[in-house]
Amino acid sequence: MDKLNSLRAFVKVVELGSFSEAGRQLRLSRSAISKYVGELEQDLGVQLLNRTTRHASATENGQAYFERALTILADLDAADQAVAQAQSTPRGLLRVNAPMSFGTLQLGPAIADFMAQCPELQIQLVLSDDQVDPMQGGFDVTLRIADLESSSLIARKIVAIDRAICASPDYLKQHGTPKLPEDLRSHALLTYGFLLTGNQWKLTGKDGDDHWIQPSWTLCVNNAEVLRDAAIKGRGVALLPTFIAGDALRAGSLRSVLNAYKAPPLTLYAIYPPTRHLAVKVRLFIDFLVARFAGVPEWDRKL
To answer: How many CB atoms neighbour CB 211 within 10 A?
Structure first.
């Protein structure tokens, strides 16, 4: 029996809950995955998985074995990575997941410059606004703009992202400029539909007082570029990350309002699985992003 491959197959089935998905991840057939797991169960003399036609889950013995197997495989990977780190040039495939708007507007040029520094590295960038599970997606690094829930993954802060309340000059001329947060209740609001606060806007004044605004929205969408475009067209007031609104604010097609009040900044994190020895390619990429966006980000300059 190939014990190592059997362990890897078993762990992947437990993580994904599926023999077929485990096969896709490991680039093996479903029957091969089933054979590896069956040999492992036969060797141990216990049932490790509960199986249905569509799902597989660990038994009580299987869960205990899974946790031990994770440690064993992590140690093996760490040993491999420790040797690989002796190489001065990162090689192989780096899989990165990132939000759509940040990826197209800010990450693209950064990736191109990183490629120049690491010419022997292959980079697979997947842009998505879905909350992708980094483990199940098989990503080396996941970039996420969010307040993170607790998990076994490691998160490193890349940069804080400010937000601006803004509208077009034509809209403000026609409907007036809000002076206080409460004034927003009489305006058409364009809102991002997937905030932790729901549709509510939280604005904090210089005195530290918080103001909660429940938008009477005319547009709710999960992409801030759409909100920006609608605001430029005069459709209402939007609360936008400055990396999306910055060019329009500098050009004057949007104007910021309520500048004495701030929405809580967002944070861009790099998330990666815990390992004793972080892969060189992952460490170099994250270090590059931290240095790239250090200080005042380019999108906030001259605002």
So the answer is: 15
Q: Is the per-residue pLDDT at 198 higher than 70?
A: no
- Where residue 277 falls among pLDDT bands split at 50, 70, 90? low
103-123 in b/e form (b: 16+ CB < 10 A) is bebbbeeebeebeeebeebeb
Task: Please compute the mean of the pLDDT values over residues 55-60 and round it to a whole number.
Answer: 90
Q: What would the pLDDT profile of 157-179 be if each residue is shown by its tens digit?
A: 999 899 999 999 999 999 999 99
* Chain segment 95-134, per-residue pLDDT in tens: 999 998 999 999 999 999 999 988 888 999 999 877 767 6
How far is residue 234's CA from residue 276's CA, in Å, rounded to a whole number?
52
Can you give the pLDDT at residue 53?
Answer: 78
Q: Which residues pair with 81 in a beta bridge?
A: none
Domains of the chain: 3-84 (1.10.10.10), 92-161+267-300 (3.40.190.10), 163-264 (3.40.190.290)
Query: What is the C-alpha separation between 171 and 188, in angstroms, rounded?
Result: 10
